[in-house]
Specification:
heterodimer, A: 142 residues, alpha+beta, Sufe protein. Chain: A, 4-stranded antiparallel β-sheet, 4 strands, 49% helix, globular, B: 409 residues, alpha/beta, Aspartate Aminotransferase, domain 1, Aspartate Aminotransferase, domain 2, 2 domains
Chain lengths: 142, 409
């Protein structure tokens, strides 16, 4: 059975397939970034900060129901924020075990994989790693 | 554009300019990070590797001889370019960072003692901060920092206040990589010498743009990187006055830097400049670095400086009326760099969208975190210019910034 994570990834790929060129794609990401509910001040703290060289990302994780993990993210850069919103959409409120072993293929499919490359140093790669670690930690707690 | 500057002929010599990025012609505004290479440099390195390669010095065979001559001839090209007195004063190093570390680890260890102070400036690249910090911490040496005026020039009063403390070393950049400020090296050096300080100048952002005469500037150490002067990565130059270099202990040990080695009688060291060149050097890089300076001289340094000045001024003109745009670095004397931010727009976002338009800029702190912290900003968007950039490209940059900003706001 396909996981909820894979289903969400497919949905995003379909959503992006509608866009004709890079500009529409980025406009969509920018609007996702603008729409993302800002992190509470209580969560926008250094403990939740993932420092990239180029942009900063905050990630807060909470235990949901039925062994799920709920994520909230934020960034000081709007494109990074939009991409973080997509990550949250894919991984948040999913079973911890699925998060830990998730294979994030959707960025490849929508042609934005370069944003996850370490040379970007935008904090996104570290954020995904952190999300998976949360998943792993909660799986271990069982 | 200066009518005498043969921009089309120059662009034709850079193969990379033929390529597209995201389906758009490449407009490369990141030469301050690393410049592209003209055919003359690419061919000099390839020809050496294809036809003349051998390990240099101490070889009796023909190739060793030819390779040695080519490498040493490149050293002389550098000597002439900097107007140094002798090739003994020209050390091949890996780059500017390596050159500064060499001085810190040799001159610094021999001359800095607990209680001494050294002087840096707020606009230094991390490479001209960290080697000194490491040494200062180990040695109990105090680091004094000269702050900047609003336009990005050095605060002369503060320079004098710190000088009164009689620092052993004054180390500063010739041209700021983040702001473009050209420092008056001759004047500051003279003042530093008046109090007995030794002067090291980071020339990484100057040699690509300006004629540099170390004799006239009277600096004690001057260092730059080959890859910013249209040459290869992994090679650079440290100039040092012969008397200083002579008195300095060697740093890295190994082949080439020795005279004789003996377990019983100890080891004696080679003469300058080889004393500081342990191990087989980056021979092809040295030769290509020489070729890059030859190429710059063929274009003409005055013409190059003039062309880049036109581009810098034009960039200021066309970017200035973008709503909410602030320039960082507005010194009267600038070289090759325009740094800016747009209100409400993160540099990362702007850089990402410009990239989609085929426009390469650098965003971030430019390895000058202390400067960015002082300015209270996370970083800037930096467009930097080289011989191959055009006024039309600068117009594309301005149009690109407008388009990106309208998307991001």
């Amino acid at each position: 059975m396909a996981s909820v994570i894979d289903a969400r990834q497919e949905e995003i790929a379909e959503e992006f397939a509608m866009f004709g060129d890079w500009m529409e794609k980025y406009e969509h990401i920018i609007s996702l970034g603008k729409e993302l509910v800002p992190l509470d001040d209580a969560d926008r703290v250094d403990d939740n900060l993932i420092k990239g060289c180029q942009s900063r990302v905050w990630l807060a994780a909470k235990k949901g129901v039925q062994g799920h993990v709920v994520f909230h993210a934020d960034s000081d850069a709007i494109i990074t924020k939009g991409l973080a919103a997509l990550m949250v959409r894919v991984l948040s409120d999913a079973p911890a075990g699925d998060i830990a072993k998730a294979d994030l293929t959707f960025l490849d499919e929508i042609g934005l994989h370069s944003h996850l490359s370490p040379t970007r140093s935008n904090g996104l790669q570290a954020m995904v790693k952190q999300m998976k670690l949360y998943g792993l930690a909660l799986t271990a707690q069982g | 554009m200066s009518q005498s500057f043969p921009i089309d002929a120059i662009r034709a010599q850079f193969p990379v300019l033929n390529r597209e990025v995201h389906g758009k012609p490449l407009a490369y505004f990141d030469s301050a990070a690393s410049a592209h290479k003209p055919l003359a440099v690419i061919e000099a390195q390839a020809k050496y590797l294809a036809e003349r390669h051998s390990n240099i010095h101490r070889g009796v065979h023909a190739l060793a001889q030819e390779a040695t001559e080519a490498y040493e001839s490149a050293r002389d090209t550098v000597r002439a370019h900097l107007n140094a007195a002798s090739t003994k004063e020209i050390l091949f190093v890996a780059g500017t960072t390596d050159g500064i570390n060499l001085v810190a680890q040799t001159w610094g260890r021999a001359n800095l003692n607990p209680g001494d102070c050294i002087m840096l400036t707020r606009m230094e690249h991390h490479s001209n901060i960290v080697p000194w910090q490491m040494l200062a911490e180990e040695r109990g040496v105090e680091v004094l920092v000269v702050e900047l005026n609003e336009d990005g020039t050095l605060d002369g009063d503060m320079f004098e206040v710190h000088l009164a403390r009689e620092p052993k070393l004054v180390a500063f950049t010739h041209v700021s990589n983040a702001l473009g400020t050209v420092n008056d090296v001759k004047t500051w050096t003279k003042r530093a010498h008046d109090v007995g300080a030794t002067v090291l100048v980071d020339g990484a952002q100057a040699v690509p743009h300006l004629a540099v005469d170390v004799h006239d500037l009277d600096v004690d150490f001057y260092t730059f990187s080959g890859h910013k002067t249209y040459g290869p990565t992994g090679i650079g130059i440290l100039y040092g006055k012969e008397a200083l270099l002579d008195a300095m202990p060697p740093w890295r040990g190994g082949g080439e830097m020795i005279d004789t080695v003996s377990f019983e009688k100890g080891t004696t060291f080679n003469e300058l400049p080889y004393k500081f060149e342990a191990g087989t050097p980056h021979i092809s890089g040295g030769i290509a670095l020489g070729a890059s300076l030859d190429w710059m001289n063929e274009v003409g340094l005055a013409a190059l400086t003039g062309h880049e000045h036109v581009l810098t001024m034009h960039a200021h003109d066309v970017l200035a009326d973008i709503d909410g745009l602030t320039f960082y670095g507005t010194a009267p004397c600038k070289a090759g760099v325009v740094s800016f931010l747009v209100d409400g727009v993160h540099p990362y976002d702007l850089g990402t969208l410009l990239d989609q338009l085929g426009i390469a800029v650098r965003t971030g702190h430019h390895c000058t975190e202390p400067l960015m912290d002082k300015l209270g900003i996370p970083g800037t968007v930096r467009a930097s210019f080289g011989a191959y950039n055009t006024v039309e490209e600068v117009d594309r940059l301005a149009a690109g910034v407008r388009r990106a900003v309208s998307m991001l706001r």
